[in-house]
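Slide 14.
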Amino acid sequence: MKQVFNQIMAVLMAFVVLCTTMSFTVNMHYCGDTLVDYSLTNHTKSCGMEVKQVKKIPSACDTMVNAKSCCSDKTISAKAQDDLKPVFHSLDLKQQLLAVTFLYSYVSIFSLETLDTTSYTAYSPPTLIRDIQTLDQVFII
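Slide 15: predicted structure.
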């Protein structure tokens, strides 16, 4: 039971470290107040309702009207921690010995032990030349 608990805790702690060091970005495209598309990997697809800017050569008589688009793009980003990077290039002999000992003991915790089950069912005892118990008159009572 204790081994199972230790394994579950090790996996849980590894998952916590993974989640705290991982960053991600969610891109969302809204048309008005309605969510049209979202993406975790790259930019979202548009709904086709964007107002395209038309470039005209301005003259004295033309008035330019800028129409506001009903679509908007939002991006939510979660930054990761970068301070969990250990430095291993300057370990002295004691620290190397500690790391090797820790890794060896950690690996031995999770290794499966094989039990050596020797079965003597196919073993036949040697033939009796003389019965020693009868000769020495030693009997189990």
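Speaker note: The two ends are 45 Å apart (CA to CA).
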